[in-house]
Amino acid sequence: MNVKQFEYKPLAHFSYIIESEGEMAIIDPERNPNQYYEYAHELGATITAVIETHPHADFISSHLQIHNETGATIYNSEKLGATYPHQSFNSNKEIKVGNITLKAIDTPGHSPDSITIVAKENSKTYLFTGDTLFIGDVGRPDLREKSGNIKAKRKELAEMMYDTITHKFTDLPNEAIIYPAHGAGSLCGNNMSDAKSSTLGEERKENWAFQEQTKEEFINHLLNNQPFIPSYFSYNVAINKEGAEHLRKAFANIDFQMNANSTNLIVDVREEKTFKENHIKGSYNIQANSKNAKFETWLGAIVKPKESFDIIIEKPQDVDKILHRISKIGYEKQLQNIITLPNQKLTNLPYLDIEEFKNNLEKYTIVDIRNQSEINNGKIFADALEHPLNDLRATAKEIPTNKPIVVHCAGGYRSAAGSSIIKQLLPKATIYDLSDAVKKFQ
Question: What is the secondary structure of 255-288 as a DSSP string?
């Protein structure tokens, strides 16, 4: 059996190809299927199956496009209620890919329709656990209260997860290799390991979920202090249930304009320094200058599903790159234009005198825009006002403006977005971004 893991770091997403005897299955594919096609071509293999462990909330899957372009059969849980062509794949069913036998286990908990794929060839066992079992954690149970074919309450799903962990893996060997759909940094779980794979034996020893505890203790631990839920998550579940539009078609109606004016919500993806020196008044700085930046997560947390917006890029050759990043969460449907800025000066944000700020904290209103779970673990500035970035567009007008406002996060990336949002909503206030200087206060 040949197993290939693909990683998309900004969303901490893992997808997989398994291949045997020239036949290939793709598990939990991301939006752009080209990398899977290239690997199939490299091996001279035929893609015969594409498997969804559940309808994903944090990214758009290309399962329908793969089916239409390759003829591969889509397999998923019968509980999903998919509207695209597919075959149900649940407990006691199996399929063959070359010499590999694939069986499904119903493993609800993260969602009611989650399955785990057990792949066996000879004496080796591989578990593709989706968002059920992560390395060091299990999937969060609070993402399906408002979306999907089945709207389950978080406590009900937490109880399902307890039963899944307690009973569904008991007959599998310690040597079974675990390949999850996400790693550290994903919002689909909490406190995951940096490891990209593990064994069931290691998880039985190290993962909190497998340790001896009561059902009530398990549920309380699982429900406690989960990360925030970006507004695009339920939107992505709905798209994945129906199957996304083919990627090439999705870009067809998006215009590129040089030096154009905009009346839409504007997202400026340039680096913080460039944005501060010159930008369109009222635009939001959600940086996409780094391959690993969490651009997709914060675009989907700040901009609402179906809300029209324009994108400001640094140079024309950045168009394709940003289009593909936006499409990861299905937001290309609401993107109206991609724009480069005119040459003339527009507006800027002032830079903070760090030493003056450090010696006179009482002269500033400090705003902490970290996630609530981070704030709960301890403040950096005792008197800081709490306005998590994912809620900031709704709460920023509550911030007093009688003093200059200093915005901070944990490392500098989010405060660029936060300070630009506050400036747009409180245009008469003096706004500073503490940026990465926050590290001097930790």
Answer: EEEES----SEEEE-S-HHHHHHSB-TT-EE---
